[in-house]
Amino acid sequence: MSTHFTRRKALGSLGGLGLTALAASPLRALAADIATPGWPTKPISYVVPFTPGGSTDVIGRTLSQKLSDTLGQPVVVDNKPGAAGAVGAGYVAKAKADGYTLLGGTISTHAINASLYKNLPYDPVKDFEPVSLVAMLPNVLIVNPALGLNSVADLVALLKRDPSKRYFASSGAGTSTHLAGEMFAELIGVPLSHVAYKGTPPAMMDVVAGQVPFMFDQMTAAVSLVQAGKLKLLAVTTAKRIALAPELPTMMESGIAKFEMSSWQAVYAPKGTPRPIVQRLNAEITKILKTPDVVAKLHDQLGMEIVASSPDELAAHMKSEIARWAELVKKSGATAS
Question: What is the pLDDT of residues 62-110, one digit of tens each?
């Protein structure tokens, strides 16, 4: 998958529809305004189903600040972490469908969890109204610098000769970071133990402290710690190298054949939220994602590939991702209670 995602490339699974800017057109926005008189009249809750500091939280706080300005009401981030986002997603699924509760959804909450969890407290398709895709995020292989590793091959050699190092951290069971580790174990033929955390920050800090040798996570979350010399990157999991770190090889270039993975972020509302409200939110989010300061922060500084979409395009993308990850989860043998 290209690291310079055009909107068509990023959602190639949509059958060549391409992503239009209709949701952001003046006429569409005007129609939404007329059809939702008075909305919003009170604060809106933006639920982030992970701990503060991770990619979903960064996006949530960025969008919430901008939406507060454009909608004229506070949009307040509410972190509800747990079970790879299932706790927060389950909360939003049961919320009143009145436009006052939103969810920062992810590849975990709306694709991987569907096949990983036997008793998921929500249905990613039936319980939500898709609003818009927000961004694609490259995952990276992260290690503690004290290990003295300079390549993926070095890590594989370490894991093969030293059983005490055969474990990896993740931001939670069922996240893309968990599945990346499971795929890695399968492809290198070395059994690895998974250490699940309640979010990216605590997992990453234990890698920094040397409590866990390595992990996979979004480039976004690792940037500052890498720049400070507290973490080291060995490879990126996308099909091609990324603009933010062009010197970083891909996993496939590093000898791990067929290893390709990218995360994605989106916005959802509870099922039954009036269509005009969904359209209004889509129009506002699409405009926000084009503003220079948001592009500078999310793309230029953090390496996210911004990908706005229509609600229908997000629904189609999610459907294809659920099928893709069901196959990968089954193949990896990963499970979660």
Answer: 999 999 999 999 999 999 998 889 999 999 999 999 999 999 999 989 9
Domain total of the chain:
2
**Which residue's entry shows tokens 């979350």?**
221
Q: Cα separation of 172 and 256, whole Å?
A: 24
102 and 147, same structural domain?
no
Q: pLDDT per residue over 40-58, tens digit each? A: 999 999 999 998 988 899 9
Closest CA to 137 of 56, 43, 22, 73: 56
Ranges of H-type helices in the chain = 7-10, 26-35, 55-71, 86-93, 107, 113-116, 152-161, 176-188, 200-208, 219-227, 275-288, 292-295, 311-332
Domain with residue 104: its CATH number is 3.40.190.150
- Are residues 22 and 71 both part of a single domain? yes
Whether residues 123 and 26 share a domain: the answer is: yes
Is residue 187 classed exposed, middle or buried when 0-12, 13-18 and 19+ CB atoms within 10 A define those classes?
A: middle
